[in-house]
């Protein structure tokens, strides 16, 4: 464990000097326990056991760490050697950690790092961070870091030069660690949630409409229960409870359907009521009301059963208990004494629906069970009308609205079948569908629709966010992530479709003639100084493709080379057909298909993202495929900016109108996209490239749209297995004015965002009231919601 310039071993006690005696004892006990678990009976750790325990992807780092830990060169690590090394790495000072890092990079032990050693280290860093770059790019990264660190140009990096280079990155030296070694440190106690208490002003700011509606809902139930119970107080306590619950059930069983009237809710979003009612929580209120209905029904039933048992036992009724409960003989009810048997049937149907609505049913590949059992609301309404003498009055208005919406939806969705005209199979099993847009289909950015593809499942409808902008007139774009049974079948059906047809030329000629029509907009390829180009889709209405990027002139897999784009002839020249799926052409890439598949859509329906254009400072956060609603919004912003942009025909000078769109009050937009791996960025990188180019000539006040990209699989600058790569990426990005991972001008940051710092920066900009819009996992939504409450930002989450 000797180091250049300091051959002595590190002082074990001084390294642990910052720890208290109690903490030191706990740490030693933990490391000893972990060592015994890994080492086994021989009480020593060999290289293979070390690799497994360290949990590293690249054996280079495991071998280098093992060699440095094994101070006596015996080929195994003892407990004492492990404690010395871990003490240095975890509790050592920055200089000790830097010396260890230098030894890792100095592969041949010569006391300096040459260019080939640095390239080997950076290649291993890339594998650890799941980053894949061409060899030419790796060479560029190596030279950028090597030339920056090698100040004396002697062809080698010394320890002092590496230290000086690291000092350009504040905080890195002090926090160097081996993050993958999760067994090195004992698990820390989970911090308490920072979520504000319900009575704080921050919580009230984000939940006032929600809380007011809950209070009104609870108050109305108390009022209805009290009035009904008082009206029957002469009949005893059990009847009072039953009647009180029954009156509340009249309200709940009729109003619960109103919360799922998507067309009505979409219309309400365009009115002032959207500022008062919590329309974004309609599904949560629907679920809450479902729990209330089940609870009230059980209490209602128990109260009646107690009353029947009392009557049968006391002789107050000539009928036996089972006759009172299951037959029409006692004449209880307003329709031939059918209240008791209909009540039993209602309870059984309700419990069946409740059980089949649980998340374990819906999300375990049995969506059909949830769907078909939920249709039992129709017989339930009939039974409720027969069961309760006044229920029909409560149902009258909600029922009319419900059947009107269903009739309109059925008529619109089944009026004419649409066609999926193009399909792109993207990384991470994402299916990009292009659907021919109906003439009267009007939507807003961020809206969603329900899709039915009869060849996949005749009766299933699934919601998907529209990822194309409303200004795009000819097609509707959907990006479908394969996460369930239906979406996997959709992806696999295109993946395995066989483009073979005996009538290929005749079918292709008919399709070409049927689809020929004048072009309204000429497709413009994306070009920049960085030579980044989008792989443009052949659909003639597409302004910019959102699926992938590649360096100009670099063929895709199976692509013979650059092909003309944006013309009818170039798109039609590659078409061919199949019979079963109606496939009529296939691009040179097997993942890009032209087709003619029948489908139906129901929508559009509004979401919380409709508020974005009425915001002053909008923060859009997408995680993975959660970018889809923001793709539509960002495209719409691009269209509106192009509308305000003017170019002088003489000098080609461009400028923007200062007059804002009457429907767009935005002063600033921050777009944050979090992805797990590198390939996931290919979905929309071309759109983001175009947006960056549009922002290049903004006013000195700063860009109107600011992009922030994060890759969670990449290790951060504080990790010894990534520091070199991250430094090289920073240096090359400054030199080339683009990011090596995505090709964007915006640098892709490793790891997850520090949300506290992100929101502090947003608050400091003072561009107006901040509203945060999120689409992604519920776990991340909870974290973001807590931070928004802390900074008094409004938070909106995409829900279906």
Structural class of the secondary structure composition? alpha/beta
Count of separate structural domains: 4
Poorly predicted ranges:
1-19, 189-194, 498-588
The portion of residues assigned to helices is 40-55%
The radius of gyration is 33 Å
Strand content: 5-15%
The number of distinct β-strands equals 17
Mean pLDDT: 75
Biased composition (Basic residues): 505-516
Membrane topology: Multi-pass membrane protein
Subcellular location: Membrane
Biased composition (Polar residues): 567-576
Defining traits:
Elongation Factor Tu (Ef-tu), domain 3, six-stranded parallel beta sheet, transmembrane, single chain, 27 helices, alpha/beta, Recoverin, domain 1, disordered N terminus, seven-stranded antiparallel beta sheet, 17 strands, 4 domains, 800 residues, oxidoreductase
Describe what this molecule looks like in 3D.
With 800 residues, the protein is an alpha/beta fold. The protein has four domains: 23-183, EF-hand (Recoverin, domain 1, Orthogonal Bundle); 205-409; 416-496, Elongation Factor Tu (Ef-tu), domain 3, CATH 2.40.30.10; 608-713 and 751-798, Nucleotide-binding domain of ferredoxin-NADP reductase (FNR) module (Rossmann fold, 3-Layer(aba) Sandwich). The chain is 45% helix and 12% strand. It contains 27 helices and 17 strands. The strands form four sheets. Strands 1, 2, 3, 4, 5, 8 and 9 form a seven-stranded antiparallel β-sheet that branches. α8 packs across α25 (723-736) and α26 (755-765) crosses α27 (778-791). It is globular. The protein starts with 11 loop residues before the first helix and ends with a strand.
């Amino acid at each position: 464990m000797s180091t250049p310039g300091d051959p002595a071993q590190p002082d074990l006690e001084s390294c642990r000097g910052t720890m208290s005696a109690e903490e030191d004892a706990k740490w030693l006990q933990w490391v000893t326990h972990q060592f015994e678990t890994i080492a086994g009976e021989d009480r020593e750790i060999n290289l293979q056991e070390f690799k497994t325990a360290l949990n590293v992807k690249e054996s280079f780092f495991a071998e280098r760490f093992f060699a440095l830990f094994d101070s006596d060169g015996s080929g195994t690590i003892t407990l004492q050697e492990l404690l010395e090394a871990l003490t240095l790495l975890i509790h050592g000072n920055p200089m000790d950690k830097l010396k260890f890092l230098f030894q890792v990079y100095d592969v041949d032990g010569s006391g300096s790092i040459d260019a080939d050693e640095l390239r080997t280290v950076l290649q291993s860093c890339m594998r650890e961070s799941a980053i894949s770059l061409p060899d030419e790019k790796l060479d560029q990264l190596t030279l950028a870091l090597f030339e920056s660190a090698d100040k004396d140009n002697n062809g080698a990096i010394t320890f002092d030069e590496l230290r000086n280079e690291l000092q350009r990155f504040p905080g890195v030296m002090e926090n160097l660690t081996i993050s993958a070694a999760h067994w090195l440190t004992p698990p820390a106690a989970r911090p308490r949630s920072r979520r504000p208490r319900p009575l704080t002003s921050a919580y009230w700011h984000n939940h006032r409409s929600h809380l007011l509606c809950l209070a009104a809902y609870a108050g109305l139930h108390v009022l209805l229960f009290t009035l009904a119970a008082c009206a029957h107080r002469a009949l005893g306590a059990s009847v009072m409870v039953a009647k009180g619950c029954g009156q509340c059930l009249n309200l709940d069983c009729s109003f619960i359907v109103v919360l799922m009237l998507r067309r009505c809710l979409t219309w309400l979003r365009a009115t002032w009521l959207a500022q008062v009612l919590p329309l974004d929580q309609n599904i949560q209120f629907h679920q809450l009301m479902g729990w209330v209905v089940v609870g009230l029904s059980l209490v209602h039933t128990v109260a009646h059963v107690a009353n029947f048992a009392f009557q049968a036992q006391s002789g107050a009724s000539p009928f036996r208990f089972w006759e009172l409960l299951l037959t029409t003989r006692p004449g209880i009810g307003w329709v031939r004494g059918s209240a008791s048997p209909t009540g039993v049937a209602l309870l059984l149907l309700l419990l069946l629906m409740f059980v089949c609505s649980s998340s374990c049913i819906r999300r375990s590949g049995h969506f059909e069970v949830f769907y078909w059992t939920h249709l039992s609301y129709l017989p339930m309404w009939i039974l409720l009308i027969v069961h309760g003498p006044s229920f029909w009055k409560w149902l009258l208005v909600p029922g009319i609205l419900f059947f009107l919406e269903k009739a309109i939806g059925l008529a619109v969705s089944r009026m004419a079948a649409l066609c999926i005209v193009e399909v792109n199979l993207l990384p991470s099993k994402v299916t990009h569908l292009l659907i021919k847009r109906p003439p009267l289909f009007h939507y807003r950015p961020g809206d969603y629709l329900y899709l039915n593809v009869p060849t996949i499942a005749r009766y299933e409808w699934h919601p998907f966010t529209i990822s194309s902008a409303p200004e795009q007139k000819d097609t509707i774009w959907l990006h479908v992530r394969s996460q369930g049974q239906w979406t996997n079948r959709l992806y696999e059906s295109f993946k395995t479709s066989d483009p073979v047809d005996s009538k290929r030329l005749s079918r292709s000629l008919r399709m070409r003639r049927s689809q020929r029509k004048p072009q309204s907009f000429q497709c413009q390829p994306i070009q920049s100084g960085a030579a980044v180009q989008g792989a443009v889709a052949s659909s003639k209405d597409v302004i910019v493709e959102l699926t992938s990027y590649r360096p100009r002139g670099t063929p895709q897999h199976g692509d013979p080379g650059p092909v003309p784009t944006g013309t009818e002839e170039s798109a039609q020249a590659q078409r061919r057909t199949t019979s079963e799926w109606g496939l009529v052409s296939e691009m040179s890439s097997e993942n890009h298909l032209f087709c003619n598949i029948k489908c139906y859509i129901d929508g559009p329906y509004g979401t919380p993202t409709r508020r974005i254009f009425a915001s002053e400072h909008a923060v859009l956060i997408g995680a993975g495929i959660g970018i889809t609603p923001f793709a539509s919004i960002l495209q719409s912003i691009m269209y509106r900016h192009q509308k305000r942009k003017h170019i002088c025909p003489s000098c080609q000078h461009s400028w923007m109108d200062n007059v804002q769109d009457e429907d767009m009050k935005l002063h600033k937009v921050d777009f944050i996209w979090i992805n797990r791996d590198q390939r996931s960025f290919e979905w929309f990188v071309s759109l983001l490239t175009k947006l960056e180019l549009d922002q290049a000539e903004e006013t000195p006040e700063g860009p109107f749209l600011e992009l922030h990209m994060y890759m969670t699989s990449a290790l951060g600058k504080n990790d010894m297995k990534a520091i070199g790569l991250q430094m090289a990426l920073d240096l090359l990005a400054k030199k080339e004015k683009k990011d090596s991972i995505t090709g964007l001008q915006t640098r892709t940051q490793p790891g997850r965002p520090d949300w506290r710092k992100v929101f502090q920066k947003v608050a400091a900009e003072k561009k107006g009231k901040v509203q945060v819009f999120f689409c992604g996992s519920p776990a991340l939504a909870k974290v973001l919601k807590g931070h928004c409450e802390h900074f008094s930002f409004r938070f909106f989450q995409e829900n279906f």
